[in-house]
């Protein structure tokens, strides 16, 4: 009898890709996959493929226990509740407790690199969630996703339009990976049937500083791009001026500070260990997303 795999946040971008790779890449039978989200009506396409859909609301502990019933392997994709401090960690702890009560055998969780040594505002959420999973006594797979290539698609079109990228990362380097590669590796871990506990850090094959990243973006877009070094305060003010909410500006400033401090300068072979493949380079990602990079009028914040 094959295992039942439940994916939370199944309507989100990462959840969608994990389920895609479970079915298409790793040939997991759709009937053994449960896609869970607050609004299951968003999952009609998956339901048509034979995937089981369930409602799972991280703010409803009793409902979570019901949603996780009969599940062998649970993937908790970290929620997007970042606007209220402490809320996300409370949600994740509720999910872990519900999983233990429901008799889940193995928990997988999407974390971030080195959450125990990080300047990123939401790092304590991830550290607390990892610790709650370890304290549950259940077998676990913690998958620490590096900063996504995809995150640059929010700001780079705007930067390329003006020809300037305001950055507070200094000489710090960061190793980024595509969201789809993370989904592929997570799906590999879920489909592996492993009963061992392990922690993986998914990164690209190279670490780059902001000038190297700017050169890659400029080449892919066919437009010049100059890096302008700013400090944290200037970066934050620019983001607030562009209309970003305070908690988002704080998060992005903290990410730049984390890169500047060398804390995102991590390269591992874990992606290859899980998938047997090489991760897509930032250059190939930018080339593949040239249309998004050069989209006029896509003036998000810095």
From TrEMBL:
<keyword id="KW-0560">Oxidoreductase</keyword>
<dbReference type="GO" id="GO:0003955">
    <property type="term" value="F:NAD(P)H dehydrogenase (quinone) activity"/>
</dbReference>
<dbReference type="Pfam" id="PF05368">
    <property type="entry name" value="NmrA"/>
</dbReference>
<protein>
    <submittedName>
        <fullName>NAD(P)H dehydrogenase (Quinone)</fullName>
        <ecNumber>1.6.5.2</ecNumber>
    </submittedName>
</protein>
<dbReference type="InterPro" id="IPR008030">
    <property type="entry name" value="NmrA-like"/>
</dbReference>
<dbReference type="InterPro" id="IPR052718">
    <property type="entry name" value="NmrA-type_oxidoreductase"/>
</dbReference>
<dbReference type="InterPro" id="IPR036291">
    <property type="entry name" value="NAD(P)-bd_dom_sf"/>
</dbReference>
<feature type="domain" description="NmrA-like">
    <location>
        <begin position="2"/>
        <end position="236"/>
    </location>
</feature>
